[in-house]
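Continuing from yesterday's entry. The apo prediction looked reasonable, so today I'm repeating it with magnesium ion included to see how the binding region is handled. Same sequence as before; SMILES copied from the compound registry.
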Amino acid sequence: MIKVILFDLDGTLTIDRNSYLLDLDALNSIRDLQSLGVKAFLVTGNSYPVSRGLATYLGMDGVVAENGCVVYAGEEHFLCKEIDHIIVKEFESKFGLKGSWQNKFRKYDFGFYPPQITPPMEEWALENGFSLKTSGYALHLSYNSQGKLIGVRKLLDLLKLDEKDVAAIGDSLTDIDMMKLAGVKVAVANGDDELKAIADLVTKGKSGEGVKEYIMSIVNALHGRNQRTCP
Ligand SMILES: O=C(O)COP(=O)(O)O
Ligand SMILES: [Mg+2]
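Holo prediction written out below.
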């Protein structure tokens, strides 16, 4: 039985990819799910303050932020090597990138625009021991080569959860790492092809609509179970 759902944020809980507007119907369906005892976590490439602030106001049960490097589930865990801000600036100017406004609040995983990785960047990253990823929203630079996987592993340890009790839903390449430890892997309809290829289920709807569709299927199944067990 699914006890925890991991939600990517950008492109998944938003109304579309490349939008920052949250899908309010998807958020309401998450509340319905939580009222049935299923826990909800944000697992995102966003900075810790943004992720934790959002999770608090959305009533989420915790977060994995900075693409796996920071975990909060009642207490904080920091899992990656910090990047010196001088290196961040060097990377930005060397490749003519614009740093994310959240970079001043980041320690382990930094974001840049445009979100495309080029071969010279890959060469530089390899020489300097970094890993590059793209979410479609931003290009990410980190020493962490395992991405969201390390944060999700920590979260499951903290919650003493088995992978089979976990579902994850996302839209981009950076969610493939999150899915590695999820018993049920869900991709939204407008997600990256590589993610859809490893998913157990691809929703009919895009982004937030797809989230609502998947959650309602669980909510209905749980209601069905409860009705069967009530005399
Ligand atoms: O920070 C990003 O680039 C995207 O964040 P996400 O992991 O919630 O999609
Ligand atoms: Mg995303």
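Comparison notes:
- The helical segments are 24-35, 48-58, 85-94, 119-128, 148-159, 175-179, 193-198, 207-229.
- The first strand starts at residue 4 and ends at 7.
Will overlay with the apo model tomorrow.
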